[in-house]
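Q: I'm building a small set of examples for a reading group on sequence design. Run inverse folding on the following structure and report the sequence directly after it, with nothing in between.
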């Protein structure tokens, strides 16, 4: 027991018994909903930070391109034009990154919506002729034939066979 609690207990002439924190029952559904909301908030915050950062870099890059273009025009230096082209390429890539972030954020929102599909697949192992015979028995090559006479024939070896 802390010192302050003891002093208060003595002054009021009562005994202090700290209570245990009560645990509130939370269903799994509610817990999942809370976690989902936290993930969405984090995703939204991260998206905003990344978008702001890239937007700021694009603005800075455009300013740098304008500055290097002035230097290139003033000095007619091939190196300055090379640097300007690299900056333009970098700014273009940042614009692509910005669009990619938007696409990823949209995909992440779609991930939160779960679609449950049940697919039952059946696999047939056999020839197409066998499958056709199973499907369409009226056209089957194994359809019931009229009973013919059975002829027993003996081979040269003395074995009997049915024809």
């Amino acid at each position: 027991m802390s010192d302050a609690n003891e002093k208060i207990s003595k002054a009021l002439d009562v005994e202090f018994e700290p209570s245990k924190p009560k645990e509130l029952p939370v269903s799994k559904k509610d817990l999942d909903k809370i976690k989902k909301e936290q993930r969405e908030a984090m995703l939204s915050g991260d998206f905003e930070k990344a978008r702001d950062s890239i937007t700021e870099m694009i603005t800075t890059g455009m300013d740098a391109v304008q500055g290097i273009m002035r230097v290139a025009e003033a000095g007619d230096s091939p190196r300055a034009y090379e640097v300007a082209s690299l900056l333009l390429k970098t700014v273009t890539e940042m614009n692509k990154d910005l669009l990619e972030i938007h696409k990823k954020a949209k995909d992440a929102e779609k991930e939160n919506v779960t679609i449950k599909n049940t697919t039952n697949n059946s696999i047939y192992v056999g020839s197409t002729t066998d499958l056709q015979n199973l499907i369409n028995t009226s056209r089957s090559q194994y359809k019931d034939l009229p009973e013919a006479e059975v002829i027993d024939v003996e081979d040269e070896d003395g074995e009997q066979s049915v024809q």
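The chain has a mean pLDDT of 77.
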